[in-house]
Amino acid sequence: MTTIQAIEQAVQQLPAQDLAEFRRWFTQFDEAAWDAQIEADAAAGKLDALAAEAVAEYGNGKAREL
Fold first, then answer.
1. pLDDT tens, residue order, the chain (66 aa)
2. pTM of this prediction?
3. Under a CB-based contact definition with an 8 Å cutoff, are residues 26 and 17 in contact?
4. Sign, CA torsion 9/12/13/17
5. 9-12: which pairs have CB atoms within 8 A and are 24 or more residues apart?
6. Which of 22, 20, 42, 40 is nearest to 30 (CA)?
7. 25/33 Cα distance (integer angstroms)
8. CA dihedral 52, 56, 58, 63 (to 10 degrees)
9. What are phi and psi for residue 36, nearest 5 degrees?
């Protein structure tokens, strides 16, 4: 059994209240990981082309206020 399979099995056996608490924790964990990845990508310049494209489209009137 792999670690992933063991985790899946353990999660399936959680009582409803513990599952809700795990979901809250995992959501926060996942959001923090996503934020860290975006920050690393931005610092490495991986988002520069997308930002430049967005600014150009805005400058050309191809964007609208949300």
1. 899 999 999 999 999 999 999 999 999 999 999 999 999 999 999 999 999 999 999 999 998 878
2. 0.71
3. no
4. positive
5. none
6. 22
7. 12
8. -90
9. -65, -40
